[in-house]
Predict the structure.
Amino acid sequence: MSILLCSAYLDCHLMVTYPIDYVEPLGKAGQSGFTFHVETAKENWQELIHRIKSKGMRPGVALKPETPIEEVYPLLEAKDPVEMVLVMTVQPGFGGQKFMPDMMDKVRDLRKKYPSLDIEVDGGLGPSTIDLASSAGANCIVAGSSVFGASYPAQVISQLCKSVQDAQAGSKK
């Protein structure tokens, strides 16, 4: 018997050497999304995407700042593609790092080439950087330190959401 404790979208972003080893347990745990790094799945990404989908999860691919955006194109153009791209806007590994605005070129390139793609950004996102990300085309935001370190987290979350919603509304005009 399984018990549904949460109806929120739960995305697991894994920076591990063998992401395929985690598909089964995370699928059983009820995860909604499974995001792996392109740098660790160059040999088996097609099998990995198939397994993720077979467990009822949505596949996403992440890339580190130094990885060229072109490395995710085959995963987006495959017969069985990923459904989201996560552009790291800091070096993965720990929170509280400074946002890398030059990563917005990758977001803009993705948005231009794949207009309906979910594009997520992670790292250094907060009230002072959200407009850069949302106006570049990011529609999914990961914010840790800026929310959990805020005196009024709900206010920060509202501001982040509003920026993304405003940017999306502006792009539809």
